[in-house]
């Protein structure tokens, strides 16, 4: 199976698809009255559905963000700012990754995450004229207070746990699942050495920000996930739909 799409309800799918195409380098495919955008590889697409409006990001919500992994975050930031897009200054966040953040025109959060840590990026990693070449939707991030329930659901669908990352300074840890037969290079899934390997995967991981015991609110404009190869719609551990692709 494959994690093949994230469903978001938006005000204007055509307009938002133009942002993902013209600014972030994705391809656009009409899907009935909706728009499907993505990079065309084994990573997930975004299915932009009619009916949204008024979305406001909140740390108390179940849905958090997408992460776009790419070779050179600095080049991408320079490119975005030249196009008038507001984006945070890149930084090495602990021993997690070199990253920055922006929002799309409807307010959905996008993280840009470099394949390599700040000081490990090879020279000439990306083309300044096309910094999103080689990019993919690397993560779809949800919040949870019960990682055991999320783990059981993911494993029941055939997903594999690839990495766990301690961010206790901020009160959470991170857990990454994917449909893959690959194993991380280091058997200890808490290992820092696995992280740059993880950011280079061409497929999308389902990332959980786990705050033990916390309760999160549903997000009306987050409409669930799509798993290619799934036979019937199921509900995840939170109750959100996962649809066949």
TrEMBL record:
Signal peptide coordinates: none
Pfam families given in the database record: Glyoxalase
Database matches in InterPro entries: Glyas_Bleomycin-R_OHBP_Dase (IPR029068), Glyas_Fos-R_dOase_dom (IPR004360), VOC_core (IPR037523)
Residues annotated as domain VOC: 2-115
PANTHER family cross-referenced by the UniProt entry: LACTOYLGLUTATHIONE LYASE (PTHR10374:SF30), LACTOYLGLUTATHIONE LYASE GLYOXALASE I (PTHR10374)
Protein name: Glyoxalase I
């Amino acid at each position: 199976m494959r994690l093949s799409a994230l469903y978001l309800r938006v005000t204007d799918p055509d307009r938002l698809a133009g942002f993902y195409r013209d600014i972030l380098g994705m391809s656009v495919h009409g899907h009935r009255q909706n728009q499907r955008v993505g990079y065309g590889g084994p990573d997930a697409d975004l299915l932009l559905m009619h009916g949204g409006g008024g979305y406001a990001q909140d740390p108390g919500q179940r849905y958090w963000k997408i992460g776009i992994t790419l070779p050179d975050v600095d080049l991408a930031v320079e490119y975005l700012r030249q196009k008038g897009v507001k984006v945070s200054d890149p930084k090495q966040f602990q021993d997690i990754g070199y990253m920055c953040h922006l929002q799309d025109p409807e307010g959905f959060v996008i993280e840009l995450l470099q394949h390599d840590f700040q000081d490990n990026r090879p020279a000439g990693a990306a083309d300044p004229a096309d910094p999103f070449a080689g990019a993919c939707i690397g993560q779809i991030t949800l919040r949870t207070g019960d990682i055991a329930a999320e783990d059981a659901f993911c494993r029941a669908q055939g997903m594999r746990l690839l990495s766990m990352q301690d961010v206790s300074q901020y009160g959470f840890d991170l857990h990454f699942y994917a449909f893959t037969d690959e194993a991380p290079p280091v058997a200890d899934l808490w290992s820092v050495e696995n992280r740059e390997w993880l950011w280079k995967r061409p497929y999308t991981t389902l990332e959980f920000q786990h705050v033990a015991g916390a309760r999160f609110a549903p997000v009306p404009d987050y409409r669930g996930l799509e798993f290619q190869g799934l036979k019937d719609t199921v509900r995840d551990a939170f109750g959100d739909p996962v649809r066949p692709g």
